[in-house]
Each structure stands twice: as structure tokens, then as C-alpha cells.
Amino acid sequence: MTFSPSQFLSQHWQKSPVVLRRFFTDFEDPIDEHDLAGLAQEEDVDSRIIAYADNQWHVTHGPIASFDEACQGQWTLLVQAVDRYIPEVSELMAAFDFIPYWRMDDVMISFANPGAGVGPHEDQYDVFLIQGKGSRQWRVGEPGQYTEHFPHPNLRQLQTFPTWKTFTLYPGDVLYIPPGWPHDGIAESDCLTYSIGFRAPDTALLAQQLAEGLIGGELTGERYSDPELATRSHPAMVNQSEITALKQLLLSQLSSTEFDQNLMRFLSDQQLPYNLPDSLLTTEELCHELEDGATYVLASGCHPIYPQRQPADHFLFYVNGEQFTASYNDRESVECLLKGDPVDAAWMRTLSTLAFMDIMTILINKGYWERMDT
Ligand code: SIN
Ligand code: CO
Which atom of ligand 1 is nearest to the CA of 109? Predict the structure, then answer.
């Protein structure tokens, strides 16, 4: 049966786990355990090995110096945000683009030996678990108040949870788990799991964003004033109208266009640590490069976004926390670009204006679009 995104969203997204059998037909792993181990040796890559040996849990954080030491008993090597390093891994996310880019976080990949798992736990965020090579048995429970424990200071697990369902996953199968549903996956053989992770800001983060906008001067807040102040029955009393006026100060910020833009910066901010190009291009140089056969593509793992509501004469879009302003006439070019269209001479001729090539040059000079190796 073919997968229906709208049916999945109405029946399962944030509601209940589901297995999507053969979601990827003829799935081929874009990476193997050796590549993963290579990444785990890098300084700026977030990785860890969780092992269960001698009746104890062990956690080793990357960069991993000695795999022999860390990989004892049943062990799992986990590497975060692999989509930022390997374009083929980033492409896995495209299969889930029925979920908006701003909700996407990153792709964590794990390699586990037979019998291994990270223990029973629940996650705060939605996850699609893609089964790569091997097979894994997942035990899933219903949301509840379960007792957490730390069998190792860096390992949060649930003591136990009643089984709701078990699923065995084979290559190309996907298990979707909403936030708060406990799960425990045990590898049946050498096994690769790709976790497509999502993000959802909480109120504290949104309030922090508002505060930072005000402190940084992007938003200009007013100060409370009370020219109509009248006498009251007790000086210790705060009138309800004063509370309402204070809240109104915040509400007027929240409903401003400036805050919408601030929020878009926040939603697009992936804290991507891009390698800036060795030398900066001019627009003219870029046009020549494209004419000579160069192709530029969106940097691996980068998810630019744009707001549905736009100003009358411009088209705003956001990349990694930065706002870019194109002319309204370039709207179609931007939409194609943000969908991942490769930028080459044909693209430039059919879709782009000179003004937009200036913006394209900035995006490349900031490392958000990269020259594709030929
Ligand atoms: C794993 O890949 O071993 C863990 C993934 C998860 O449970 O979220
Ligand atoms: Co999990």
C-alpha cells in the first residue's frame, strides 16, 4: 500500500506510533559502521558509545580515542547530526518533507552489535526510526508516569514500562514514535538505525527569544506609564487594570511584524557551523562559474524557510538564523531554491534575475550553498 502523508498526519503524527513497512523500497545504507566510526573520531562531531558489559552500563563520549576500550559487551555507537556531514544522509530527510522544514532537527545514526540497545527511555521529540542494515526489535509502551533512573551519570533510562506493542524492523522499514511514548530497541544482528529527529520550541525558549529581541534592539519595547493614575483604597493594592496594561505591553510586542521576523530567525536557526569558503566570490565570478558548468547546491543539513505572509513588495526568507530579502518578482526562484533545486547555468537563465544573483552570491559566500564536486 502506498504511504499517504495526509492519512499519517491525521492518524499518527503526535498521536500514536506506527510502523511504515518498506517505506524505503530496496533501502541502501548511505553510510556504514566504518564511516560512522570515522566521524566519531572527529573533534567537532557529537558522538558516544553506550555499552552494557559486566552487568554495568558504560558511556564513552567522543571523540572516541579507543574503540577497543569503549566497545565492550553489547554496545551502540551513536553519532548526532550526520546529515550535516554527509549529503546522502541529509537526503533521507527529504522523504519526510510532509513535515515542515522548521520542525526538522537532524539525523542521528547508531550502529549496534547483536543484543545491544540504549535501554528503555522516552524522548521529548517525535522521531522516525529508519531501519538500515540488520534487524531490530522495538518494544513500545504507552505514555505514562514512569520512574526514571540513571544507571550511569550520563544515561537516562526508564526503570520499566508495560509493553503496548512490539515490532521487528527490517531494512527500509520505519517506526514513528511520538514524544513521550517509551521505547526500547534491541538489535537482532549488526544493525544501523537512522533517527530522523524533530524539534518543537517550548514556551521558555519562545520567551527567551522575545527577551533577546528586546535586549538586542531588534524589537523596541515601551516602558510602562500611568498618566491617568488615580487614588486607590490601599497603596499596597495592584489594580487589575494595571496587570492588564503590563500584559498588554508584552502582547503588543508579540503581535508586531518585527516579532514575526524575530521568530522566523529563531525557527531557521540551526546553529550550523559552516566552513566558510576559502575565497569570496563576486556576482560576476559566480555567473561565469555557472556558465562554465559549475553547479551549486544547498549545504548538507541546511533547512531554509520562509513565512507564508510576506510584505507587499519583498520576499523574505531565512537561513540559519539570518534574514534575506529578495524582490517580490524573485519569489518563484526563491521557492525553487529552498526546495533544493541545484543552481546551474540553466537555472540562472530561466529563473534568476541579476538582483537575485547578488543574493545567491551572499548565500554562497556564507557557506549556505556549496559548489558541487564534479
Ligand atoms: C538507537 O538508535 O539506538 C536509539 C534511538 C532511539 O531510541 O531514539
Ligand atoms: Co529514543
Answer: 2
Separation of CA 114 and ligand 1 centre (Å): 14
Assigned domain for 272 exists: no
Return the CATH number at 19. Answer: 2.60.120.650
Ligand 1 pocket mutation, candidates 33, 118, 188, criterion most atoms within 8 A of CB = 118
Ligand 1, atom nearest to 183 Cα:
7
The closest residue, in CA terms, to atom 6 on ligand 1 is 195
Ligand 1, residues at Cβ distance < 6 Å: 76, 110, 112, 118, 123, 127, 183, 185, 193, 195
- Domain hosting 214: range is 203-254
pLDDT range class, residue 374, cuts 50, 70, 90: low
Report how far residue 219's alpha carbon sits from residue 213's, in angstroms, rounded to the nearest whole number: 5
Q: Both 365 and 324 in a single domain?
A: yes
- pLDDT band, very low/low/confident/very high, at 274 (cuts 50, 70, 90): low
pLDDT at res. 48: 97
- Amino acid at residue number 174: V
**Helix residue ranges per DSSP H, 178-301:** 203-216, 240-254, 257-268, 283-291
- 316 inside domain: yes
* Same domain flag for 227 and 366: no
Selection from 267, 126, 256, 254 nearest residue 198 by Cα: 126
Q: Tell whether 23 and 126 lie within a shared domain.
A: yes
Do 319 and 294 reside in the same domain of the chain?
yes
Query: What is the residue type of 128?
Result: F
* DSSP run (H or E) holding 316: strand 314-319
Residue 267 lies in a domain: no
Q: Is the pTM of this model over 0.85?
A: yes
